[in-house]
Amino acid sequence: MDQVVLYKNLSPPQMNETSLLKKLAVLKVNGGLGTSMALKGAKSALELRDGLTFLDFAIQQIATLNRKYDVDIPLLCMNSFSTHEDTLRITEKYNGKQVHIQSFIQSRYPRIMRDSLLPCPQLDGQDERASWYPPGHGDLYNALLRSGELDRLLKKGKRYLFVSNCDNLGAVSVSGDFI
User: Fold this and answer.
1) Separation CA 126–CA 23 (nearest Å)
2) Which one of 80, 114, 120, 172 has the fewest CB atoms closer than 10 angstroms to its CB?
3) Cβ(71)–Cβ(18) below 8 Å
4) Strands in the chain per DSSP E
5) What is the DSSP pairing of strand 132-133 with strand 109-110?
6) Rounded to 5 degrees, what angle do the CA atoms 25, 72, 139 make?
7) Which helix (H) or strand (E) holds 101?
8) How would DSSP label each residue in 34-70?
9) Residue 45: other Cβ atoms inside 10 A
10) What pLDDT does residue 98 have?
C-alpha cells in the first residue's frame, strides 16, 4: 500500500473554502534579525512602504481574509529572544482589530565553539544573548507544544497551520488574496 499519494491523484476537498478557512491558523517564523541588511532589530520590523513593516503587511493580509470570508484566522508569531520586543511593539496597534495575534518565543540554544565543541562563554560586558542562538524552523513543533499554542489552536477547532517566514510577503494562505 502506497503511503504517499501523488498530487495529481488527490481529489479536491469536499468542503467549501470558508469551512476550510475556519480551521486555519497562520504562523509566521519571526526570529530573524536583519543583520545582513545592517539592521539592529527584527527583520520583520523593517519599514517597506508608507511606514508599514513586513509584520504589518502579514497582519493586514490575514485581516483581509477574515473580513472577506467572515472567519477568524489567528496569527501566531514565533519570535526569538531578540525579536520578541519589536514584535510586541508592532502588534500592539492591532489589539481588538480584525485579527487575533499571539506571540511566543522559540527555544534558544548555546552557540558552540568550533575548535572545542563547548558552549561559547559569555564575555564581560557582552550582551548575554550573544552566547545563544534561536533555532528557527527546526524548533517549530517543539515551540508550539511547549508554549501551549498547539493545545489552544486545537481547542479552537484549528486543524491546519500555514507556516512561512515573516519577511516572505508572497507566501499567502489563499491564492490571490494579497492586500
Assistant:
1) 45
2) 114
3) yes
4) 24-30, 47-49, 52-53, 75-79, 101-105, 109-110, 132-133, 160-165
5) antiparallel
6) 20
7) strand 101-105
8) -GGGT-SSBGGG-EEETTEEHHHHHHHHHHHHHHHHT
9) 22
10) 83
